Structures are given as C-alpha cells and as structure tokens.
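SAMPLE LOG
Freezer: B-3
Tube label: C17
Construct: single chain, 113 aa
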Amino acid sequence: MKEAAVYIEKRKITNIKIANNFFKKLIGFMGKKDFDYGIIFPKTNSIHTFFMKENIDVIGFDNHGIIIFKAVNVEKNKVIVIKEQLKNTNILEMPAFKSKKLKMYDKLTFIRK
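STRUCTURE (predicted):
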C-alpha cells in the first residue's frame, strides 16, 4: 500500500496507507491488532467490520477532503454505508477514538511520504 499522512489545519492526525486495489480494499484491518495507522479506501461508500479484532473509527470524506460522515468506535460485525455517490466518496478507517479531534465538514489534507 502507498503511504501518506493525514492532517487537519497543519496538525497531523495519523499516518495512513492507501488501499489502491481490490485485494487491499477487501482485507483492510481484518485480523489485525494494535495498529497505529489509518487506511484510506478511495471511491468507496461502504465498509464492513467482519473479522476485525479491534473497533475502529470510520470517516467519510468527499473528493475535496471535506468530512461528510463520522462514526466513532465501530464494533466488529457491522456494515457502514454512506449515502453519497460512490464516485464522490472516500473512507478513512483509523484506530478507535483516533478521530476525536475531527468534526463534520473539517477539511482533511493528505501528504504522501
């Protein structure tokens, strides 16, 4: 996966990896424990938490980086659907409670390493 970091107002929120193919999108955080980074799922408006070992935060954002959806501490065996067009929606998964400083309509900035 490609690596980058996500910022808001010049404050780093987390390091991220980009799931840029079907297999990486399918696996995500499945089976992982104690992760300290986020994963971006481009052009995605739904995710599941089946086979996950830990709860996660789910952030939906548009193609301009504006947060349009936020769910904190999502438990395993859930399905999250963001009711926006697939082509205009991206999802960021992060460790649980890592998104507490993010608010709806904040603008995220991504910087590749």
